[in-house]
Each structure stands twice: as structure tokens, then as C-alpha cells.
Amino acid sequence: MANRKPLCAAGQPMPRSLRNRRFRQRSGAATLDYILVLCFILPVGAFVIGMGGRIMRLVYEMLAVFLAWPFM
């Protein structure tokens, strides 16, 4: 079963030219993935990590105010 050839819509084996075209359409996609990671994901991650301490401090202060306001 692992050696089955991909089938066309008509149920016939896909010609070799069509099978190769699938891979040619994806050529260069790895480069775009690297650009996405380097230009978008890493800066966003650095921003989130950098702001993490401030976010935790603000959440702590907000919780303290919510818990303390009835006693003021």
C-alpha cells in the first residue's frame, strides 16, 4: 500500500509530469518560511518576552487592587 501512485480525479495514475509539477509549485517555499521566522516571529517573540515582566507586574497590581478595595 505504501508504494501506490497518486491518482488523478478520474482514478487513473497521475502522469509523471503532473507529479513533478506539484513539487515545482512549492519550490522556494522554505526560503519564505525562513524569512517569515526571521522577520516576524522572532521580533514578536522578543517583544513578548521583553514585556512579560511588565505584564505580570501590572496583573499583580490589578489583582491586589481588586482584592483590597472592599477593605479601604
Topology:
Elements: H1 16-25, H2 29-68
Protein architecture, described:
With 72 residues, this protein is mostly helical. It has one domain (16-71). Helices cover 69% and strands 0% of the residues. It is built from two helices and no strands. It is elongated. The termini are far apart.
Query: How many DSSP H or I helices?
Result: 2
Low-confidence stretches: none
Query: Strand-and-helix sequence, N→C?
Result: HH
Which percent range fits the helix content? 55-70%
Distance between the termini: 73 Å
What's the number of structural domains? 1
**Number of strand elements:** 0
Assign the structural class, choosing from mainly alpha, mainly beta, alpha/beta, alpha+beta, or little secondary structure: mainly alpha
**Whole-number mean pLDDT:** 78
Largest sheet: none
Overall geometry: elongated
Strand content: under 5%
Radius of gyration, in Å, reads 27 Å
Please outline what is shown here.
With 72 residues, this protein is an all-alpha fold.
Task: Offer a few descriptive terms.
single chain, mainly alpha, 72 residues
